Amino acid sequence: MDNNRTNKSSSIEQSSTVNRQLSIECRKLTKQFGAFKAVDEISFDVEQGEIFGFLGANGAGKTTAMRILCGLSYPTSGQATVAGFDVYKQQESIKKNIGYMSQKFSLYDNLTILENIEFYGGVYGVSRPDIKTRSNKLITTLGLEKEAKKLVGELPLGWKQKLAFSVAIFHRPKIVFLDEPTGGVDPVTRRQFWDMIYEAAADGITVFVTTHYMDEAEYCNRISVMVDGRVEALDSPANLKNKFNTDTMDDVFYQLARGAKRMDN
Amino acid sequence: MSSVSVKNIIKTYNKGEVKAVNDTSFEVAKGELFGLIGPDGAGKTSIFRILTTLLLADSGTATVEGFDVVKDYKEIQNIVGYMPGRFSLYQDLTVEENLSFFATVFGTTIEDNYELIKDIYEQIKPFSSRRAGKLSGGMKQKLALCCALIHKPKVLFLDEPTTGVDVVSRKEFWDMLGKLKKQGITIVVSTPYMDEATLCDRIALIQNGSIMSIDTPGNIINNFPKALFAAKADNIYKLLQDLRAEAEVESCYASGEYTRFTMGHGQLTTDNVKSRLIESGHKNLVIKKIIPGIEDCFIRLMNS
Fold it and tell me: Where are the alpha helices (H) located in chain B, listed in sequence order?
């Protein structure tokens, strides 16, 4: 057993020296709670600068897997590296090199936009002068000059989410994890949000994103679909639609997930 | 007589600073499946809370089954079922305890109205002794629907019942609504998912407290004023940027695998645009005319 693991980890080290563009590597990653396998031997690679859609039915194990990849939870077995750091031994380095944003995570409502940016920039160790230049630029890009000194709580939801994304990549992480970033957001803002995602990816940031909107799944370079703890499908949206002989991602998802036995959140 | 009637309802918060519902009027016929379609902050929840007598409007009137939401609130509370957006059952009670609690409150029993909830309840029955707080999202949603139905309401108000729920559970849920509709129950349902709009008899597209359009999904789509085109190429992001840079392209946004766009009033055709895109290096370019969806209509209304 121990032997096995050493072999696996050395093979990962080898592949990362050969191919430096890999952002996430997962090999048989497993998280078990008692007899329950929340994440069951999932394996996949994500390339640097790729937009990777991480889909699955409710309770499929997405959140658990994401928590491991963000350095917030230890796997039970298997191997994974994120931005080249090991999920067992280098959790702190992972946290420094990633950005994270979710639908629920929100900025501090009772701080202003500028204060929020300064706070998060500071937490991630961005220098004061850098915070200043970057936040000025950010506010101009978002067109929030007039609102910069307003409390974040006063912003409409769509703006909050766009700001939260900008803050999540403010420290220029290698990877950004987005957990249902556009839930409840109007269709126009949702698209502006995706423009920002494309831009970040074009700048080389890897985007790892979950969503319940199937049209958004199609904006991803590749997507994986988890069912009952396992990755049941992984390919480009176009290939998946071919494989499942349908012209909508909705249907691909439905065909894969309808047999799911688990429904726990 | 309409089942639900809303006339010039205005609701503001923060001493008038926030206009949640802005002079809104609509009618829902008996037995109709009516959808309020819009994003967070559109005013959907305020409308639900006013119609279920939990919130007073600043002005305007509304009736449910002929009863006034202010004067006749007691009557309304007996004849409506309400499933709020936030799970609001007792987490510490079991599935069965929750259901019998709601039945008792409305002076009925599970047995009396079992026929109505049978199809839905059978699916969660294996977990009837599990605490509601320990249920999965899909099961919580089914239990909440059972509890909203147990007193055999005439009108069912469902506030974003499918938000955050996966595609499979969403489909099951809409199948259930279809069956309830056949039993003659009026259903008012809200959703941020535009693809669910086509499952309603009529819909109101709502944004920032105002209804932008109200009609059958088919009519709303037929009223889309322009030809809508879809384009795809190997580099989606570049395609999006290049299309936006085209003077002849009026509007352009991503939608799934394709980028959708409409043309302006100029002389150039999509063929001209196509050859220009190929010139600028796009590979595997496809452009085709498509039928708009509700989301396209929503985007167009928002931008106009």
Answer: 44-51, 73-79, 95-105, 114-124, 137-149, 167-182, 217-222, 236-245, 270-279, 294-303
Which pLDDT tens digit goes with each residue over B234-278? 888 889 999 999 888 999 998 878 899 999 887 778 888 899 999
A184 and B298: CB-CB below 8 Å? no
In B, minimum Cα distance to A226 occurs at: B166
B93: phi then psi, degrees, rounded to nearest 5 = -95, 155
Instruction: Give the pairing of strands B4-13 and A98-102.
Output: unpaired
Cβ contacts of A238 on chain B, cutoff 8 Å: 257
Mean pLDDT of B68-72: 97
Min distance A149 CA to chain B CA atoms (Å): 19
Judging by beta carbons within 10 Å of its beta carbon (0-12, 13-18, 19+), is residue A140 exposed, middle or buried?
exposed
Least CB-CB distance to A186: which of B163, B165, B207?
B207
Q: Angle of helix B236-245 relative to helix B270-279, nearest 10 degrees?
A: 120
In terms of CA atoms, which chain A residue is nearest residue B18? A154
Question: In this complex, do A185 and B257 lie within 8 Å of one another by their Cβ atoms?
Answer: no
Q: Which residue has the higher pLDDT, A181 or B4?
A: B4
State whether residue B304 is helix, strand or coil. Answer: coil
What chain B holds in terms of domains, given with CATH numbers, is: 4-216 (3.40.50.300), 228-303 (3.30.70.2070)
Instruction: Give pLDDT tens digits for B6-58.
Output: 999 999 998 888 899 999 999 999 999 999 999 888 999 999 999 999 999 99
Give the whole-angstrom CA distance, residue B16 versus residue B59.
Answer: 12
Note whether A258 contacts B: Cβ–Cβ < 8 A. Answer: yes
Identify the three-state secondary structure at position B71: coil
User: Could you write out the DSSP letters of every residue in B167-213?
Assistant: HHHHHHHHHHHHHHHHTT-EEEEEES-GGGGGGSSEEEEEETTEEEE
Does the distance separating the beta carbons of B253 and A191 come in below 8 Å? yes
pLDDT class of A105 with cuts at 50, 70, 90:
low
- B94: which DSSP letter? B
Q: Taking CB atoms and an 8 Å limit, are A185 and B295 in contact across chains?
A: no
Query: Of B166, B254, B303, which has the smallest distance from its Cβ to A257's Cβ?
Result: B166
Residues of B in contact with A265 (CB under 8 A): 136-137
Q: How far is CA B56 from the centre of its chain?
A: 22
Q: Which residues pair with B273 in a beta bridge?
A: none
| CB-based contact A243:A72 (threshold 8 Å) | no
Chain B residues near residue A185 by CB distance under 8 angstroms? 39-40, 192
Does the CB of A59 have a partner CB in chain B at under 8 Å? yes
Contact between chains at B39 and A219 (C-beta distance less than 8 A)? no
Q: For residues B263 and B250, is the Cβ–Cβ distance under 8 A? A: yes
All domains in chain A, ordered by first residue: 22-105+173-257 (3.40.50.300)
